[in-house]
């Protein structure tokens, strides 16, 4: 059901819809003129992946509560829309979450920030304790970073230092095509160099080793012909570069911003085996997939009935996005005792990284409360419910001529088109149906908050299918 008109009168922009009188909507937002705000934004504010001089026209957000955003549509009218994106996959509990708000208020009463060099504090210790408890067995050291991209930088640096400390100069990383690991330089270098969004920087980045993208489909058996051929090529490629590979880095089971590609667990098993055989480390990038996004707590650990991933514990684990429930930027890198001892025993005497806002107390306090909230609920069951709702709701898209494939994994639903998405048109069509989505490349997808109701799941799925049908046919 599309959100209907709210009871009027009420404050302008709060619960407003097409049912509110025009005179009530006004043009003010927090005392500022909406048109003036958007004009300044257009002339001076540079948005992600966009032109500074010919920008896409953004929607102005007034507030957020639950899983809904209150925005201004292109006509300047207040609208309430369901956030089908979890604010780039991080707001897993939605907005204005009482438990997270309370944690923020408590921490602000003590301190919002203090440097982590030479000092420590309870929020960082408490968060690290929770992460070690939740992480796969053996990951017992925690380095707190600023963002997901920075955590990958740290993980790669950690792997390089580990080899250097042992007298080995291994400088290359092994991964699979179709991946995405962040926008800073080291993560860009292990993101797909041809089809990825950083292909522009080829020749400027270090060159690493990319195996073919594995065939899609979670349920492919190891003897599947396409998977057998992938394994043959990958083993041969690794053998040719084995002495130079410091670590394998991979997004387990689901490649996120590289194309929402789901691949068989056997792929992960092969990559682990190759690394172990040749003395390399394994890095799992669970920034997008961790904390139940694909169903289990860690995508790399698999579901309870999935034996293919049993025992595949990485040496280094990167987490972010959902870590703070979408409140503040924070990420973490966890590693084994062996890695920590190796790095610390080198000439440098420690890991050579130290962000200014490392272990920010406010972010750590909120993250700890967020993990408490995740573990106090049956989050895996919640995600299973969302998976079933997305499967049922998106299946109609498969019959559209413009659609190449529909796939769902956990709280991830993807409609892949046969052509590039007309982003602005699809976004506007979804907003007209009460849903915020942000398509990219040839994908119209949703990663809804875990607290999304069945009714709102139906609304999201319907809006995606109808938007694709209206714009692409």
Automatic annotation (TrEMBL):
Binding positions for substrate per the UniProt entry: 88, 180, 321, 354, 438
What the entry lists under InterPro entries is as follows: Aminotrans_3 (IPR005814), BioA (IPR005815), PyrdxlP-dep_Trfase (IPR015424), PyrdxlP-dep_Trfase_major (IPR015421), PyrdxlP-dep_Trfase_small (IPR015422)
Q: Where does pyridoxal 5'-phosphate bind?
A: 148-149, 285, 355-356
Pathway membership, UniProt: Cofactor biosynthesis; biotin biosynthesis; 7,8-diaminononanoate from 8-amino-7-oxononanoate (SAM route): step 1/1
- Name where it mostly resides: cytoplasm
Is Nucleotide-binding included in the keywords of this UniProt record? no
Pfam families according to UniProt: Aminotran_3
The record's catalysed reaction(s) read: (8S)-8-amino-7-oxononanoate + S-adenosyl-L-methionine = S-adenosyl-4-methylsulfanyl-2-oxobutanoate + (7R,8S)-7,8-diammoniononanoate
Enumerate the cofactors the protein uses: pyridoxal 5'-phosphate
Keyword match S-adenosyl-L-methionine: yes
Q: Sorted alphabetically, which Gene3D superfamilies does this protein's record hold?
A: Aspartate Aminotransferase, domain 1 (3.90.1150.10), Type I PLP-dependent aspartate aminotransferase-like (Major domain) (3.40.640.10)
Q: Which domain of life is it from?
A: Bacteria
**Positions carrying N6-(pyridoxal phosphate)lysine:** 321
EC number(s) on record? 2.6.1.62
Q: Which UniProt keywords apply?
A: Aminotransferase, Biotin biosynthesis, Cytoplasm, Pyridoxal phosphate, S-adenosyl-L-methionine, Transferase
Any idea what job this protein has? Catalyzes the transfer of the alpha-amino group from S-adenosyl-L-methionine (SAM) to 7-keto-8-aminopelargonic acid (KAPA) to form 7,8-diaminopelargonic acid (DAPA). It is the only aminotransferase known to utilize SAM as an amino donor.
Family of the protein in this entry? Belongs to the class-III pyridoxal-phosphate-dependent aminotransferase family. BioA subfamily.
Task: Describe its assembly.
Answer: Homodimer.
Q: What is this protein called?
A: Adenosylmethionine-8-amino-7-oxononanoate aminotransferase
């Amino acid at each position: 059901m599309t959100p209907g008109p709210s009871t009027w009168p009420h404050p302008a922009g709060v619960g407003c819809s097409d049912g509110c009188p025009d005179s009530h909507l006004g043009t003010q937002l927090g005392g500022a003129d909406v048109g003036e705000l958007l004009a300044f934004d257009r002339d001076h504010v540079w948005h992600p992946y966009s032109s500074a001089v010919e920008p896409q026209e953004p929607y102005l957000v007034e507030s957020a509560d639950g899983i809904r955003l209150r925005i201004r549509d292109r006509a300047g009218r207040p609208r309430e829309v369901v956030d089908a994106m979890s604010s780039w996959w991080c707001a897993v509990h939605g907005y204005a979450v009482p438990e997270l708000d309370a944690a923020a208020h408590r921490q602000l009463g003590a301190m919002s920030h203090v440097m982590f060099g030479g000092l420590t504090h309870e929020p960082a210790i408490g968060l690290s304790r929770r992460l070690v408890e939740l992480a796969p067995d053996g990951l017992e050291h925690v380095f707190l970073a600023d963002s997901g991209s920075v955590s990958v930088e740290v993980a790669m640096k950690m792997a390089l230092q580990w080899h250097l400390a042992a007298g080995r100069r291994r400088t290359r990383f092994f991964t699979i095509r179709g991946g995405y690991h962040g926008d800073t330089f080291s993560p860009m270098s292990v993101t797909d160099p041809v089809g990825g969004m950083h292909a522009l920087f080829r020749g400027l980045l270090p060159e690493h080793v990319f195996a073919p993208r594995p065939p899609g489909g979670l349920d492919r058996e190891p003897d599947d012909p396409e998977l057998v051929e992938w394994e043959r090529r990958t083993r041969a490629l690794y053998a040719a570069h084995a002495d130079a590979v410091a670590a394998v880095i991979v997004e387990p089971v689901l490649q996120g911003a590289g194309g929402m590609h789901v691949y068989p667990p056997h792929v992960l098993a092969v990559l682990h085996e190759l690394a172990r055989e040749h003395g390399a480390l394994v890095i799992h990038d669970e920034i997008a997939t961790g904390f139940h996004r694909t169903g289990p707590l860690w995508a790399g650990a698999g579901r309870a009935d999935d034996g293919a991933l049993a025992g595949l514990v990485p040496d280094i684990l990167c987490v972010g996005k959902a870590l703070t429930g979408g409140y503040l930027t924070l990420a973490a890198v966890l590693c084994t005792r062996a890695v920590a001892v190796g790095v610390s025993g080198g000439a440098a005497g420690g890991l050579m990284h130290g962000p200014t806002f490392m272990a920010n107390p406010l972010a750590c306090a909120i993250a700890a409360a967020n993990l408490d909230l995740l573990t106090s609920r049956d989050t895996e069951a919640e995600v299973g419910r969302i998976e079933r709702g997305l499967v049922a709701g998106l299946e109609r898209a498969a019959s559209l001529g413009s659609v190449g494939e529909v796939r769902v994994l956990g709280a991830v639903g993807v409609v892949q088109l046969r052509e590039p998405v007309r982003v602005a048109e699809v976004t506007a069509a979804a907003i007209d149906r009460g849903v915020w989505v942000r398509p990219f490349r040839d994908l119209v997808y949703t990663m809804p908050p875990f607290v999304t109701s069945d009714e709102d799941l139906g609304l999201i799925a319907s809006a995606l299918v109808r938007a694709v049908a209206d714009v692409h046919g």
